[in-house]
Design brief:
The protein has about 425 residues and is of the alpha+beta class. About 30% of the residues lie in helices and about 20% in strands. The protein has 3 domains: about 120 residues, Beta Polymerase, domain 2 (2-Layer Sandwich), CATH 3.30.460; about 130 residues, Up-down Bundle (Four Helix Bundle (Hemerythrin (Met), subunit A)); about 100 residues, Roll (Ubiquitin-like (UB roll)), CATH 3.10.20.810. The protein has 14 helices and 14 strands. Helix 5 runs antiparallel to helix 9, helix 6 packs across helix 8 and helix 10 packs antiparallel against helix 11. It is found in: Cytoplasm.
């Protein structure tokens, strides 16, 4: 659908002159904003005009219905003090889900003194800082409303929580700029680095998909618990906004424990600590709530010269029933073949020991054992090319794993989507 024209060619000029004459204060500039400035207007779009005036801080809005040749057009006029208008460009837009804004504008008229400052082809507003503290506070409000059986309170709190999620996830994601509320909403839902099920949970919390109070609460908990490990590498940016203690709590696990405390039913005591398998493996597509280390964790060395390992080479919390089915190499490893969940494309092959498998199953983040560095590593912890685990299958011999993932970015360290990008010539009789 093409851009819908205005009622006539001189429509904007006529309205600029009319507004200058009718203004209560001296006018220094008039700008066209919104869908007509973006050349994305439809036949139903209104015309958004900013009238910038001098003097003390001032803001007023007027609405007009202009009828021309049988067609009625809604003209929406915002009168603003020019200084506060300029200052406002340095603040995040309240409709942009915390994302930075680049919105086209068109200057219709300007006082010569102010023209250099307001003749802007695009109006740029910065991103919102990652509002992690507010995100946690909103989860607390939702928990309080849930405990009080206040269903409306839960819905309001989780909707506010969902609107904060993109700003908190922004440091972990590629930069994106938006020009409209619709574009901001689409970008907020499609962030590439986000918890598994993020889009569905966002739509549910925002009230755009039907769901009961229990479903809304579960979605809010999944969002927060899924976001925490993704932003842990950006604790420094959190510290700049919310202070060092919240950033330290994000790193040392206190924040995870606080969220787990909020998630427990009222009057339900915390689970006693256990040495093995504290969390069941998630079903395909689920996001577990256990934090995962975002930096490599040194493992216990094994002796590669020994016989083939029928027992773990390093201490592990893996479920004994699963561990008993593994056939390991001499250094206690099984091969992990990683494929894309949606397409089935083989992405890479890596190695897991019992503990790496345990972490993969209980955190939803693909975790491997590095044979060269002799340490655990989480895919994407340093590169940002995260792997969110959808399912794990063990082969018939117990010596290989098939890991289906949602891959963010490239799987290969060379920057390729898959490690298998080098084709070899096949010259057999069947070719």
């Amino acid at each position: 659908m093409g851009h819908a024209p205005l009622p006539h060619s001189g429509f904007l000029e006529d309205w600029a002159a009319r507004l200058r004459d009718a203004a209560e204060r001296p006018v220094v500039g008039i700008l066209l904003r919104g869908s007509h400035a973006r050349r994305a207007a439809t036949a139903h779009s209104d015309v958004d005009l900013d009238v910038l005036v001098g003097g003390s801080p001032y803001a007023a809005r007027r609405a007009y219905l202009a009828e021309t040749a049988g067609r009625v057009t809604h003209v929406s006029v915002a009168a603003r003090d020019v200084r506060s208008w300029v200052d406002r460009l340095g603040e995040p837009a309240d409709w942009a889900f915390g994302l930075p804004v680049t919105a086209p504008a068109r200057l219709l008229w300007a006082d010569p003194h102010w023209r250099p400052r307001i003749d802007l082809p695009v109006l740029c507003q910065p991103a919102e800082p990652p509002r992690l503290e507010e995100l946690i506070a909103m989860l607390g409000k939702a928990a309080a409303a849930r405990a009080a059986a206040d269903r409306l309170g839960v819905r309001l709190a989780v909707a506010d929580l969902a609107r904060l999620c993109p700003s908190v996830l922004r440091p972990a994601n590629p930069s994106v700029r938006v020009s409209s509320r619709r574009a901001a909403f689409a970008a907020a839902l499609e962030l590439p680095v986000a918890p598994v099920g993020y889009r569905d949970d966002m739509l549910l919390c925002l009230g755009l998909r039907p769901g009961g109070t229990g479903q809304l609460w579960a979605a809010a908990v999944r969002l927060v618990t899924g976001i925490l490990p993704l932003i842990r590498p950006y604790a420094g940016e959190i510290a700049d906004v919310a202070g060092a203690d919240l950033a330290d709590a994000l790193v040392d696990g206190r924040l995870d424990r606080y969220v787990a405390q909020l998630a427990r039913p009222v009057g339900h005591p915390p689970n006693p600590p256990r040495e093995s398998s504290p969390v069941p493996a998630p079903r395909a597509g689920q996001w577990a709530t256990v934090p995962v280390p975002d930096a490599p964790v040194t493992g216990v060395p094994s002796d590669p010269s020994g016989p083939a390992a029928s027992t773990p080479a390093r201490p592990s919390r893996l479920d004994p029933a699963i561990a008993a089915r593994l056939r390991r190499t001499a250094d206690g490893l099984v091969a992990a073949v990683v494929r894309a969940h949606e397409s089935g494309e083989v992405l890479m092959v890596a190695w897991m020991d019992d503990e790496a498998l345990h972490r993969t199953l209980t955190t939803g983040r693909a975790t491997y054992w590095s044979r060269s560095r002799r340490e655990y590593w989480v895919k994407g912890a340093t590169s940002g090319h995260h792997q969110y685990v959808r399912s794990v299958a063990l082969d018939c011999d117990g010596d290989a794993l098939l890991v289906s993932v949602d891959q963010v970015g490239a799987a290969c360290h060379t920057g390729h989507r898959t490690c298998f990008f080098t084709e070899l010539p096949v010259t057999g009789a069947g070719t």
